[in-house]
Amino acid sequence: MAVEPRLGRRQAVKALKRELILDAARRVFEADGIDGASLRAIAAEAGYTPAALYFHFESKEAIYAEVLKASLARLAEAVDQAVAASPAPAARLRAAALAFFGFYAANPRDLDLGFYLFRGGMKPIGLGRERDEMLNTALAAALRPIADAAQALGVTADAANLLMVDTFAHAAGLLLLAHTGRIRMFGASAPQLMARYVDAAIAAVGDGRGL
Amino acid sequence: MAVEPRLGRRQAVKALKRELILDAARRVFEADGIDGASLRAIAAEAGYTPAALYFHFESKEAIYAEVLKASLARLAEAVDQAVAASPAPAARLRAAALAFFGFYAANPRDLDLGFYLFRGGMKPIGLGRERDEMLNTALAAALRPIADAAQALGVTADAANLLMVDTFAHAAGLLLLAHTGRIRMFGASAPQLMARYVDAAIAAVGDGRGL
Amino acid sequence: MAVEPRLGRRQAVKALKRELILDAARRVFEADGIDGASLRAIAAEAGYTPAALYFHFESKEAIYAEVLKASLARLAEAVDQAVAASPAPAARLRAAALAFFGFYAANPRDLDLGFYLFRGGMKPIGLGRERDEMLNTALAAALRPIADAAQALGVTADAANLLMVDTFAHAAGLLLLAHTGRIRMFGASAPQLMARYVDAAIAAVGDGRGL
Amino acid sequence: MAVEPRLGRRQAVKALKRELILDAARRVFEADGIDGASLRAIAAEAGYTPAALYFHFESKEAIYAEVLKASLARLAEAVDQAVAASPAPAARLRAAALAFFGFYAANPRDLDLGFYLFRGGMKPIGLGRERDEMLNTALAAALRPIADAAQALGVTADAANLLMVDTFAHAAGLLLLAHTGRIRMFGASAPQLMARYVDAAIAAVGDGRGL
DNA sequence: TATGAATGAGTATTCATTCAT
DNA sequence: TATGAATGAATACTCATTCAT
Questions:
Q1: Planar angle of CA A106, A112, A116, nearest 5 degrees
Q2: Under DSSP, is residue C127 helix (H, G, I), strand (E, B) or coil?
């Protein structure tokens, strides 16, 4: 009876410390880039010795994964909130797609994190099978509302899924280009192009034109 | 009479050796990732001492740039060939867009190289201002035919440019997703989605629906 | 009660290890020359990996500076002891000058270190502004007693200063020649020449012949 | 008969090329410091490939030695000229000593070269026994006039020799201090101190006070 | 006489991680 | 839980020198 509260307190302290380390990691990722961030730098920023971090995370990659997971959770929350405010299916589809795009457009740090998952091509992504699956699941959850809204508009589950993937791809492409200055280089506006894409997609669904 | 052929031979040998080193670099990029590739590894793969590479290239970054440049040249050539085979503007637009997408879909190594250009977000790209501009120019040249064909279809220069950027973004997004297994994960097909996107774009241009 | 001694012990161990590394550095300086000494060699001589030295010193230059500082401290102590044992001003002047000379004559390693400070002419000294100033101050402290004794003999502060510099120069020149075999080559004795110089200087001061 | 002139021409061309390389070496020594000068840099400055220098000099050290030798020859010439202009022995002694000092005071590059000979302490000086002896002989020749003048003033050969060495030492010390800013640091003037030293030495010789 | 290519040894410093304390 | 010390591997690049051509 005297022990349990203590354990709870201990766990809370432990969780707090983890959170402080993750905050430090985010700051270092922003300052040095994700690949350029070293465990030493994260530890220093958090007020720790490098060795100390190993009591809180099993490896550098584990820290990456944790930060990524939190980012994806914020993304999903942003999408969910947008959807919750939109009663009609078409508006929901629009809101979900634009919220997804808007989250990353507004939070370039999170975009860097997201792209980190996509680096390396065919090479092992480096975070381990289990972590990869966890992150993929989190990503899928953030995209789900798009497919759900499409289905509510009357298309089949398969078509809704394709539309979701296609929207994801378009957003990713535009964000990639915008993030690296290519959109500006060509004198275009990423949010406008995204909005146009979404409107065309909704129109196509309405027409029964498939996608 | 005896000297000139020798000189020619020498230059040919020199060019050949450069090419062998670049091939080795490509293999190492594929195996270790582009950021993970070290000069030592490239040298070893090419059968050289690290120091020897400095007789052929002035720095590691110069090797990167050379490999990237060659890749973009092959891309542009693929697009140009596809366009040359298509007389009508609509077919040309389709051919250019699908050739761009198809080149990277068929050559994942080149896709890795291409994405390397896009990494880092706000971080320095690391190849130096001059090399960066050269590479941007090469990329723009590969995309140009898309805008040209759109303009031939009757839209304004601005609209043609937007369509080119949007197509670029869609291709990039689909390739990114496909390359990292996300397309498969959602049970979709990147080439099909790309073709559908292009067809819709052509139809929109035909309708005078802008984009 | 159990903790404090431990901390003291730790600090003592740390200081001891630093000293062992500095000793190794001194041996390597002697063996390879100061410019020729590499961090690797110092580490190997100390029984460490190169990386390990970075836990004890922040850079190679920091090691150089530490060794130099310790040498100058020993020099100053030798001069101070000689002066402390000499009550009369003339004897003090003599003792200080000969102690300065004698220290380096007896410790050729320290002479090499001292000359290192003087190398490079117009080139950057390479230890950084702060360290340079610290070392200059330490050197000035070792010479101070010469000027003080001269002043006690009745000359002005300026004249005492000049005598100090001149004595420094004569000692440095003789040591340089002796250290590189030139004195022997000319069949002379550096200590004798130094003593003669000092005696002449004291006589000149006594005569009121200025310097 | 047709051959000899050609050989002479060839040797002249060869000598000229050597001289051009040595000039380049001097410029690089000045720019990068003597230790910092690389064979590559000297070759580039001379308009050659590094490998080409090996047809003119057997090693990097040989280039050092040649440049040093030329410097010492200029020194000896400066001393000889000063002596030639001074008929009386006392004036000759004064002129020789001040010319020695003045040459290095006016030509800091040559001073760097001269000190290079004196570096390294007990370590092999690095130029090889033969070259060392050649350079020592050249140095002795530049100092000889000092001893000769002293002897002309009536002291024994041994005393004249000692005076020469002592003068050498004093000049070397003052130059060392001046060259590295220590004279300025103590608010003194090297030429004044040197002149005073020489005058005192001449007075001592006149008194029959030994030295 | 000169070159271009090549070598092997060398440089200081950083990295993620481990382990005894 | 946290530290300080340590490791071994890695980094890009420079050096004087050699050798076939």
A1: 150
A2: coil
From CA A151, how far away is CA D60, in angstroms rounded? 80
Length of chain B: 211
Is residue C93 left, alpha or beta, with left meaning phi > 0 and alpha meaning psi from -120 to 50? Answer: alpha
pLDDT for the residue C88: 95
Nearest nucleotide (CA of D55 to C1'):
E1
Phi and psi of C70, rounded to 5°? -60, -40
C-beta atoms of B187 and A35 within 8 A: no
Contact D113, D68 (CB under 8 A): yes
Q: Determine, for residues C193 and D166 on separate chains, whether the beta-carbon distance falls below 8 Å.
A: yes
Q: Does the beta carbon of A208 lie under 8 angstroms from any beta carbon of chain B?
A: no
CATH topology for the B1-57 domain: Arc Repressor Mutant, subunit A (1.10.10)
Segment A81-136, tens digit of pLDDT? 999 999 999 999 999 999 999 999 999 999 988 888 776 544 445 567 778 888 88
Do chains A and B touch by CB distance (3+ pairs < 8 Å)?
yes
Q: What is the CA radius of gyration of chain A?
A: 20
Nearest residue in chain B measured CA to CA from A137: B185
- Which pTM value belongs to this model? 0.88
Q: Which helix (H) or strand (E) holds B79?
A: helix B60-84
Domain C67-206, CATH: 1.10.357.10
Domain boundaries, chain A: 1-57, 61-207
Over the stretch B34-70, which tens digit does the pLDDT of each residue have? 888 999 999 999 999 999 999 999 999 999 999 999 9
Confidence of residue A184 (pLDDT cuts 50, 70, 90): confident
Which residue's structure tokens are 């398969």?
A158
Where residue D105 falls among pLDDT bands split at 50, 70, 90? Answer: very high
pLDDT class of A1 with cuts at 50, 70, 90: very low
Phi, psi of A128 (to 5 degrees): 90, 145
Say if A1-57 and A61-207 have the same CATH topology: no
Eight-state DSSP code of residue B51: H
| CATH code matching the domain that covers B68-207, chosen among 1.10.357.10, 3.30.70.580, 1.10.3210.10, 2.30.38.10 | 1.10.357.10
CB within 8 Å of A95: residues ≥ 6 apart: A82, A83, A85, A86
Nearest in space to A167 (alpha carbons), one of A207, A201, A133, A203: A201
CB contact under 8 A, A188 and B162: yes
How much is the mean pLDDT over chain D? 89
Q: Can you identify the CATH homologous superfamily of domain D61-207? A: Tetracycline Repressor, domain 2 (1.10.357.10)
Residue D168 near residue D137 (C-beta atoms within 8 A)? no
CA dihedral B161, B164, B165, B171 (to 10 degrees): 180
Contacts of D109 (CB under 8 A, 6+ apart): D26, D29, D30
Taking the C-alpha atoms of residue C102 and residue C75, their distance in angstroms, rounded to an integer, is 10
8 Å CB contact between D52 and D63: no
The C 53-92 residues near strand F by Cβ under 7 Å are: 55-56
Q: Name the nucleotide nearest B37; use CA and C1'.
A: F11
Tell me whether B166 touches chain A (CB under 8 Å): yes
Confidence at residue A130, expressed as pLDDT on a 0 to 100 scale: 79
Q: What percentage of chain D carries pLDDT values higher than 70?
A: 90
* Residues on chain A touching B112 (C-beta within 8 angstroms): 121
Chain C nearest C-alpha distance from D209 (Å): 10
Q: pLDDT, tens digit, for every residue of C140-158? A: 999 999 999 999 999 999 9
Percent of chain C topping pLDDT 70: 91
| pLDDT, tens digit (0-9, with 9 covering 90-100), for C53-71 | 999 999 999 999 999 999 9
Residue showing tokens 């292009």: B198
